[in-house]
Amino acid sequence: MLVPAARPATGLAVRCTRALLSPWSRLSLLVAVLLGAAATMLLLEPQRLLATGWPAQLSGGAVAVILFGVAYGVCTVAFVPRPLLNLAAGALFGTQSGLAAALAGTVLGAGISFGLGRVLGQDALRTLLRGRWLKAADGQLSRHGFRSMLALRLFPGVPFAAANYCAAVSRMGYPPFLVATGLGSIPNTAAYVVAGSEASSPTSPAFLAAMGFIVLTGLGAAVVAWRKRHRLTAG
After folding, report:
1. Handedness of CA 159, 117, 129, 182 (dihedral sign)
2. Which parts of the chain register pLDDT below 50?
3. Which among 181, 112, 119 has a CA at the least distance from the CA of 146?
4. What pLDDT does 36 receive?
5. Angular region, 177: left φ>0, alpha ψ -120 to 50, beta rest
């Protein structure tokens, strides 16, 4: 007696699994996670807690710096503005320790965002790269990832989260993204940390130099963005 061959599994469970793992389902999950994180941060106001509600027993030492760096990274994933966190780092830990905590948190937050965007959003979002500007940006990040990301981090014109997710959607590699983020974030981060550490002395040379650097880099970023926009449009 012939036994019928086993039919491939095409039941409801298989179809549901395929639907849940589809690019658009993963993109929907990414959006839900980011919206939930942003809503949580709006309610908790972590930037205020980090600046004024930091536990007294954690106000110094390596453990405090590490914990702040981790909290910083999580906050950046939830769209808390980095300038506020950099100022808080300087106010809490001074220039050297504050800069170490801020840079560690910057790289950590960027790495988490890049990973989320690459795993949950890349497959779906790459199908939407039809516009000239989007294709040009994707090509630049994919072919010249390190130097492009380094330039984006050096000039504060592009929002931190936007750069993270644009890089994740492109074909840029993980190591060059992290290295470029760490190196390119040093100047601007240092300026804010110094401003935070010297906030009690707003007429001090260090504070004035830090604020001058922030203003000049902001103006420089605006000029570069304007020129790039016109160049891409003309191309």
Report:
1. positive
2. 1, 9
3. 181
4. 83
5. alpha
The whole model's pTM is what? 0.78
Q: For position 186, what pLDDT does the model report?
A: 95
pLDDT confidence of residue 48: 66
Give the Å distances, CA to CA, from 195 to 57, 139, 191.
24, 37, 6
Token pair, residue 35, equals 């919206």
Token representation of residue 168: 């994740």
Q: With b meaning 16 or more CB within 10 Å and e meaning fewer, what string describes 42-66? A: eeeebbeebbeebeeeeeeeeebbe
Contact 163, 152 (CB under 8 A): yes
Cα 38 to the center of its chain, rounded Å: 13
Please count the residues of the chain. 235
CA 194 to each of CA 37, 90, 172: distance values in angstroms, whole numbers, following the listed order: 29, 6, 32
Residue 27: the pLDDT is 72
In contact, 130 and 96? CB cutoff 8 Å = no
| Numbers of helices and strands, H then E, in the chain | 12, 0
